[in-house]
Specification:
The chain has 334 residues and is of the alpha/beta class. The protein has helices at residues 11-22, 53-59, 76-86, 123-140, 171-177, 196-206, 227-236, 249-255, 261-267, 276-281, 291-304, 315-326, and strands at residues 2-6, 26-31, 43-47, 65-70, 90-96, 145-151, 153-155, 181-184, 190-191, 193-195, 215-219, 225-226, 243-247, 332-333. The strands form four sheets. It has a seven-stranded parallel sheet, with helices on both faces. A three-stranded mixed sheet has the order 8-13-14, sandwiched between helices. The longest helix has 18 residues, at 123-140.
């Protein structure tokens, strides 16, 4: 199996390459950065920037792959470029979309499956929906077989572990220092986090799986957490306990407008998804990495890369904590 991963040195891309190699695939990656991957001896690496449309498309105009996995397609223009570059030159195209394409309302059964309406509230989600439609039309015209995969929060070495308010804030440093952290609502909102290697396994094992042709899947793990659970289990990876200050999301967004965009667009809503369809069609997809283990690995990597946030310098966040304490909110152990 000859596979191209566009964006193969990124977070999920690294997990995909790992599992493709385990399947015995011949793997090529295309990415802008030139750092050598852990699999560099076994992988053909092409350096390039897909924002240079002409160069990107010319790179592949005489090449055919069995499978192309596009991890860095975020706009309609990029989706159209993907069709021009690979239409008629691959059997299957896998597109990395996102669960942010779904309506933020909570379904009757709580878990969001692939039938839930796509009514995104963020520009990111709207652009991904537009990409899906362009690629679907190309598939309908026989340019390739399309598989759409929609990850939720994916973490692991190479990226930060998000907290409820921010993608890369200082909450974990505060927990390590024994300081309280802010949590929107009552801590009972639902959340899912999937390790990059588990998420990558679905992409890799869906490759040339005919059951996955012309299908869309949630690329999420099985564990669903409340925010209390999430903080408790992630804190255990630091050998600490988490002290949570429960405050209204609306208050946080009003006090520091513009700072907590992640809360505004994503985490103030339930984020629980079903991967049953993916596990049925791609039986090799069985997430195995528990949050404590994955968080410990991710925290160690953040320190190695110098990506650990020092909360002592964040006076704005501490000021908000002080306001909450003055209003009578008391820390609760997760």
């Amino acid at each position: 199996m000859n596979v191209l991963v566009v964006g193969g040195t990124g977070l999920i891309g690294t997990g995909i390459v790992k599992h493709l190699l385990a399947r015995g695939a011949s793997v090529t990656t295309y990415a802008r950065n030139r750092r050598r991957s852990a699999y560099s001896d076994d992988v053909t690496q092409i350096a390039g920037d897909r924002s240079n449309v002409r160069e990107f498309e010319q790179t592949f105009e005489t090449t055919r792959y069995d499978v192309v996995i596009d991890m860095i397609c975020f706009t309609s223009a990029q989706a159209e470029s993907t069709v021009r570059a690979f239409g008629g030159r691959c059997e299957q195209l896998e597109f990395c979309s996102t669960v942010c394409t779904y309506d933020v309302k909570t379904p009757p059964g709580v878990l969001i499956d692939e039938s839930w309406p796509q009514k995104p509230i963020s520009d990111y989600g709207r652009e991904k929906v537009a990409c899906e439609r362009i690629l679907e039309r190309a598939s309908e015209h026989g340019r390739f077989k399309l598989t759409i995969l929609r990850p939720s929060h994916t973490y692991g070495p190479g990226s930060a572990l998000v907290d409820q308010l921010e993608l890369a804030g200082g909450a974990w440093d505060r927990i390590e220092r024994g300081l309280p952290i802010l949590c929107a609502g009552d801590g009972l909102g639902l959340w899912q986090s999937t390790h990059r290697d588990d998420c990558g396994k679905l992409f890799a094992c869906a490759a040339l799986n005919s059951k996955a042709y012309n299908q869309a899947y949630n690329a999420t793990g099985d564990e669903i957490f409340t925010w209390r659970d999430y903080y408790r289990r992630a804190a255990s990876a630091l050998d600490r306990s988490a002290k949570l200050l429960f405050v209204p999301a609306s208050w946080l967004l009003k006090e520091l407008p513009g700072r907590f965009e992640f809360l505004l667009e994503t985490t103030q809503f339930h984020g629980a998804y079903s991967s049953a369809k993916a596990r049925q069609d791609v039986p090799e997809f069985r997430p195995t990495i528990e949050l404590e283990l994955g968080a410990r690995e991710t925290f160690a990597d953040m320190r190695r890369r110098g990506a650990w946030c020092d909360s002592a310098t964040d006076r704005e966040y501490q000021g908000l904590v002080d306001k909450a304490l003055a209003l009578g909110f008391a820390p609760v152990e997760a």
